[in-house]
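Case study.
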Amino acid sequence: MTTRAEFLGSIKREMAKTRGLFDARPVPRPPHAGEAFEAVKRQMAERWPQALERFREEFERIAGVFHRVGSMDEVPGVIRRIAEERQARSVLSWHPAPLGLDLRESLGREGFAVTVAPHGAPDVAARQLHRDEAARAEIGVTGVNWALAETGTLVLVSGQGRPRSTSLLPATHVAVFDRSCLLESLEQVGIVLEALHADPARSMSGAVINFITGPSRTADIELTLTRGVHGPKEVHAIFVEGR
Amino acid sequence: MKASIMITCLGDLLFPEVGVAMVRLLRRLGVSVDFPRGQTCCGMPLFNSGYHHDAALVAARTAKLFEHADHVVVPSGSCAWMVKTEYPGLLKDDPALKARAEALAKKTYELSQFLVKVLGVTSIDSAFKGRVTYHDSCHLLRGLGESRSPRTLLRSVKGCELVELPGSDECCGFGGSFSVRLPEVSTAILDKKLANVESTGADCLVACDAGCLMQMGGGLSRRGSRVRAVHLAQVLEPEGGA
Amino acid sequence: MSDAQLRTPFPERAHSALNDAHLQEALTIATTKFIGLRKEAFAGYPDGEALRDRARAIKESTLQGLDTHLERLADNIERLGGHVHWAATGDEARDIILRLCRDRGVRMAVKSKSMATEEIELNEALEAAGVKPVETDLGEYIIQLAHEKPSHIIAPAIHKTKGQVADLFSKELGGRFEADPEVLTAVARKELRQKFLEADMGITGANFAVAETGTIVLVTNEGNGRMVTSLPRIHVAVMGMEKVIPTMTDLMVFLAILARSATGQKLSSYTTLVRGPRQPGEVEGPEELHLILMDNGRTRQIAGTLREALYCLRCGACLNVCPVYRQIGGHAYGYTYPGPIGILLTAMLKGTGSVKDLAHASSLCGACKDVCPVRIDIPRMLIELREHIDRERVAPWAERMVFGLARRAMASPSLFRLGAKIGRVAQVPFVRDGRLRGLPLLFGKWTRTRDLPPVAARSFSERWKELERP
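After joint prediction, the assembly is written out as follows.
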């Protein structure tokens, strides 16, 4: 059984043989994560309309379905239409606290089976219950941490009341976002993630960050593209203006 | 303008007409041409198969042969590549030899590069008539970064119609000893190339590398194709080949 | 590939591949498509070239501080409640996983695609230990059912036609399925969904691991990577140690070019950043996270010939453009990793002797180097491998003789001329219509399928006297 010291020791020995042989060129990185992050926020406060347009273009290019509403009140209506078109009745959503919306009040009263993720420390029973609900749900509704315009990507950080499988198990994923989520480039995402990780205890209550770029897909059979392999067949993004 | 011909082993023994065409063409363009005696091979077959010590000896010898040349012109992209990119590294342990190799590397040019980039010639008068298609040899294309000069020259010939070859940048399957170490794979790759060649309807397949011409010409003639494989020099100086 | 198959000489394996009509068709379609997708992706991406340079620089810079980065990575993962294991060999990596399975009562493990686990032949070991491994990547699922190995680094079942997949599913799963990729994908989705929910362990590889944050990064398209790292109670990631990168900023550079190089996508459908096991308050996620850092021959190359091969992102772009791979496919190579980079990786993992034939399975055309996102100079390393092979192992006497003659002829113009004279005489019986055919011995390998120009009656050197005077 190799120990850390042994493993690293053999690496160090080999590295010693190459001293001075290769051009050392350390790569630049943002010196002050916090400052760079503030700069991005300021930039995007102005550039969000262009970013939104680009996001829509890229999102639709990868088969995302884009919606735009004036306020959060209109969101349940959009979801209802999506559900009806797919003859879906069961909806699972993030907990209302991170989502900013309680679908049980709206859709739940219209005959849809709406469940929400638990908030607070779940016990074994709660975990199993949630798993069963996630496996059954036909539509998963989440919020979004960031929407990357360059590639039409939704970035979701997991955590309390924001489970991973809401955007993964149901066949249709609906993501709700507003202007504060928009970023233009992968480079900016890097800056944001550096800042996020500078103080993870404060900023992240979950262990996974997912970049979602369109529906689940594969081309493993004869390079023919099919969607909805294991993850969702469809991804919808609802942009809420008023927020 | 003085140029010394590096004829290459295949050029000397199998395609002397290409060398003759090249000499006549260069003279026509006002270049005085000489031919250092005692040339054999650039050593690339040794190098590619891993016989680096032997390749270094050949490199040292060649560098000495061309010591006094102003410009060295080579009718083969792979040989030019060998001299320009690999000779200095092969001779790195001897500073004097390395310096000589570096000097040689700087003044060595594949033919089309010499014509366009050194002589500044982009238009050639030639009696050649026909539809041609051009194959990008791997070492000229990727090793020396050259794909424009041959096409510029071909397009400038009035009677010559250049048709782009689908997959022109795909290997012909020669690869030196590869062609006889793995002849079946080499031939399969060649068949793909020749299918593309024939799809162009060209009369002539043009390339700037003897190895490629040997491979593609050998395949074309075996299948009784009416397409002729010729070197760029033979299009630019058609009477020179006899 | 079984040992028996490996005993078949490489030229014979290549021969079988060349004569497999289905394979030839599948290879042409797949590689041509991949090439087009990659070309398009980079054509519309002016930043791409500079990013490739930057990516290569990051890889080189990381190697120069590899021990520090690995230490940082391990410290961070352990701080997050994950476990880090150090496997000097593939055997050790396997043993670590088997021990975990035993200690934690694992009966079924779902796997997302991982070449590192292929490298150590994990599935066979799991099955022998009574643990059922279930491949969930569609391509891997297909070859698992077919009891085959992957034939391409990112599209493991690319050698199969849809008809073959339909037959396979019908046979192994019971039923009659149409040869339609949509139908077949839906079958796999249904079959595997239950497995994700029931599995005790999820096993993945890792495309990258960010040292500064302790993050394991998975780049996938299907969603199985996410399932496998969120649903089972244990997540095990097996990673070649060279995959560590310093920071999140660095990660973005690689994400920008990886999917573009592999499939032409700007980003794959899912990029998953995993930081430790589930946090308190999360309703889902594994209780345990294990990262197995694997050496298995890599460390030796830090100061070795194949150092640059440690930059590899496993994107598969070099396979798609390789004229040899495009003709013979992945299985003919005989080892876990096929194609141009595969030859180098095989030498790295199994020693120079293992690539005595494969090192010559290249025309040195350079197309691989052209498309490599981190600009690995594969042809150069192939030539260096050939040099090692010449030094370490004795080439067949026929080859030594030929190259010995060549070497002497190149050193001596009179010998060179003599060779030409002998050739002119010896070739006479074989000249037909101005071409050479039916030559014996080594030359027969050429003339079996191609004509040769005869040695000219007068060489250029011999004609120079008349040419001298213009």
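Observations recorded in class. DSSP finds 22 helices and twelve strands in chain C. Chain C touches chain A through 97 residues (CB under 8 Å). We will return to this complex in the next lecture.
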